Amino acid sequence: MSIWLIIGILLCLSELVFPTAFVELMMGLSAFIVALLSGVIGTLWLQVVLWLVISVLLIFISQRLLPKPRRRTKIQDAVIAETISEIQPGQPGRVLYEGNSWRARCDDEKLYINAHEPVYIVRREGTTLIVMPQNVLNG
Questions:
Q1: What pLDDT shows up at residue 75?
Q2: Is residue 74 part of a domain?
Q3: What pTM does this model have?
Q4: Of 53, 61, 65, 129, which sits with the fewest C-beta atoms within 10 Å of its C-beta?
Q5: How far apart are CA 139 and CA 91, in angstroms?
Q6: DSSP-assigned letters across all residues of 115-133
Q7: β-bridge pairing 100-106 and 93-97
């Protein structure tokens, strides 16, 4: 019984240190349940199987109940960047955004953007910023 309590405490505490979307917490709770049932279930291998089954069930239930994080693909705060290199039509280039160099591509694949030109960030696709020249959008 005491080994399951120790395992449960360690798993629950490790969730505080290394957040894993409640996976370790659910495994720790299932270890507490097995600790309570260890007097009835004498063999260790059966306790381990019960712990695995309860852990999987609790993880599955907790994942179904938690809201899914929304992926944010649009950049909402600072929307202005400056090109570091020229962006050829249909080709990627580099922009300086929030002090970092990012790969960028023009939203209109027929436009050419000069180096050191201010651009608006339209959206983000993975690690590539989709930009439009400031002079085009301002008219």
A1: 46
A2: no
A3: 0.51
A4: 65
A5: 24
A6: TT-EEEEEEEETTEEEEEE
A7: antiparallel
8 Å CB contact between 54 and 33:
yes
pLDDT in tens, 63-111: 888 777 665 544 455 588 999 999 999 899 999 988 889 999 998 889 9
Question: What amino acid is encoded at 57 in this protein?
Answer: L
My answer on whether 17 and 58 are in the same domain is: yes
For the chain, give the mean pLDDT. 87
CA pair distance 38, 7, nearest whole angstrom: 13
User: Is 92 found in the same domain as 39?
Assistant: no
DSSP 107: S
Q: How many structural domains compose the chain?
A: 2
Same domain, 57 and 94: no
Q: Are residues 58 and 107 in the same domain?
A: no
Least Cα distance to 125 among 96, 102, 101 occurs for 102
By residue count, the chain amounts to 139
Q: What is the mean pLDDT of residues 16-43?
A: 91
Each residue's pLDDT tens digit, 109-125: 899 999 999 999 988 89
Asked whether residue 84 is domain-assigned, the answer is yes
Give the range of the structural domain holding residue 94, as residue numbers without chain letter: 80-138
